[in-house]
Design a protein that fits this description.
This is phosphoserine phosphatase. By secondary structure, the chain is of the alpha/beta class. It has three domains: about 5-90, ACT domain (Alpha-Beta Plaits, 2-Layer Sandwich), CATH 3.30.70.260; about 100-180, 2-Layer Sandwich (Alpha-Beta Plaits); about 185-385, Rossmann fold (3-Layer(aba) Sandwich), CATH 3.40.50. Helices cover about 40% and strands about 30% of the residues. The chain contains 16 helices and 16 strands. It has helices at about 25-35, 65-80, 90, 115-125, 155-165, 175-180, 200-210, 210-220, 230-240, 245-250, 260-270, 280-290, 320-335, 350-355, 365-370, 385-390, and strands at about 10-20, 35-45, 50-55, 80-85, 100-110, 130-135, 140-150, 170-175, 185-190, 275-280, 295-305, 310-315, 340-345, 360-365, 375, 395-399. The chain has a twelve-stranded mixed sheet, sandwiched between helices. α1 (about 25-35) runs antiparallel to α2 (about 65-80).
Length: about 400
């Protein structure tokens, strides 16, 4: 097994200039001929400009750093680029010790100063920004930062960044770099106020003329003030006598959250399995399964006799605990660990679902859910989940 290179053998070579076909080959010719091993390389194209850094190991080279630098400077003059050499100990600067890398994804409507605002938050907390990548998607801008939290309390810092970004009107999701690189294969969603742009039970209540009573119970349950099962049974009892035709009418006019259809289509296209886990009703999840192509759906079953609701629910209640169990069951069924699962929801009923997933995102959510999630997205940014998952087309880099 080869011994690791010593710091005095390692040099950082940086290149900046106009891009053209074959330029990488031309730049690497001299190191290859001099048996200089390139042990790390990062190359980007930014608005037609090549930006490249590489770490060269001279431990077993046939040339000194000064000799390679002279050769590369001659090549650089021919190519019209700038080349600089720096020993790696100087390149690293004063910040040493074990790194604690996190991916911080910011989503917002584009405006001046977003990157500065986040950089200020990081600097004030002693967090080093190692990399930033900007992706524009219409009016939505996504900035993916790789930040080194160093010796700081990561959990406390994650909560602090989420709170401060929210004050600035920015959506943010914070993941450890290791977790962000995990292969994710399953994503689970809540239905009401997540995939569907309203609470279906509130729509049903309007038909029954009990909308005010039901909406009040719904809000108290979502804020965690009422036990979910108790709240659900109370609301369904208020719907007793509602004709099945009312459900059909709501289903015909079901309104999806903006971006949800495109999001599900893209996720399935890249191989994700998708699930809908709802504290709502199978009458609607079945329709969404057919319309959007969900692989799995789970919800409560309304008892219907002689074409009307009886005010009762059949079978097991899908509450918060059941949602958490279903996430674990689906992971087992798919043969993956919890790190391979993404969960998206909006209310207190989604807490265990969010916590049991490798990545939990609170969408247009209540405070109780934001606290246990890895980050939150606002109502207009659901499609931004693609950026969080690294699935959006990449735009330019900021170095």
């Amino acid at each position: 097994m080869a011994e690791p290179a010593c710091d005095f053998d390692l040099w950082v070579i940086s290149v900046l200039g106009k891009d053209r076909p074959g330029i990488i080959c031309d730049l690497l010719e001299a190191p290859a001929k001099m048996k200089v091993n390139i042990v790390d390389l990062d190359q980007r194209i930014l608005q037609g400009r090549l930006v490249m850094s590489m770490v060269a190991d001279f431990g077993k080279a046939d040339a000194t750093p000064k000799e390679l630098e002279a050769a590369l400077q001659r090549t650089a003059a021919d190519l019209g680029v700038e080349v600089s050499f720096l020993p790696i100990d100087q390149y690293r600067g004063k910040r040493m010790g074990r790194k604690n890398l996190h991916v911080v994804t910011i989503l917002a409507r584009d405006r001046v100063g977003i990157i500065y605002d986040v950089a200020t938050l990081a600097a004030e907390r002693g967090v080093n920004i190692e990399k930033a990548l900007v992706t524009a998607r219409g009016e939505l801008i996504s900035i993916e930062f790789v930040m080194d939290f160093g010796p700081l309390d990561a959990e406390r810092l994650r909560g602090d960044l989420k709170a401060e970004c929210e004050k600035l009107g920015l959506d943010v999701v914070v993941q450890s770099l290791d977790k962000s690189r995990k292969e994710r294969r399953l994503i689970v969603f809540d239905m009401d106020s997540t995939i569907v742009d309203f609470e279906t039970i509130n729509q049903m209540a309007s038909f029954a003329g009990v909308d005010r009573e039901v909406e009040e119970i719904t809000m108290r349950a979502m804020n965690g003030e009422l036990d979910f099962e108790e709240a659900l049974r109370s609301r369904v009892r208020l719907l007793k006598g509602t004709p099945e035709g009312a459900l059909e009418e709501i289903a015909k006019n079901i309104q999806l959250t903006p971006g949800s259809e495109e999001l599900i289509h893209h996720l399935k296209e890249v191989g994700y399995k998708t699930a809908l886990i709802s504290g709502g009703f199978t009458y609607f999840t079945d329709i969404l399964k057919e319309r959007l192509g969900f692989d799995y759906t789970f919800a409560n079953v309304l008892e219907i006799r002689d074409g009307v609701l009886t005010g009762e629910i059949e079978g097991e209640i899908i509450d918060g605990a059941a949602k958490g169990r279903i996430v674990n069951d689906l992971a087992g069924l798919e043969g993956i660990s919890s790190d391979g699962v993404v969960a998206v929801g909006d209310g207190a009923n989604d807490c265990l679902m969010i916590q049991n997933a490798g990545l939990g995102v609170a969408f247009n959510a209540k405070e109780i859910l934001k606290k246990v999630s890895d980050g939150s997205l606002s109502k207009e940014n659901l499609i931004g989940l693609l950026n969080v998952l690294g699935l959006a087309d990449k735009g330019g880099d900021l170095l």
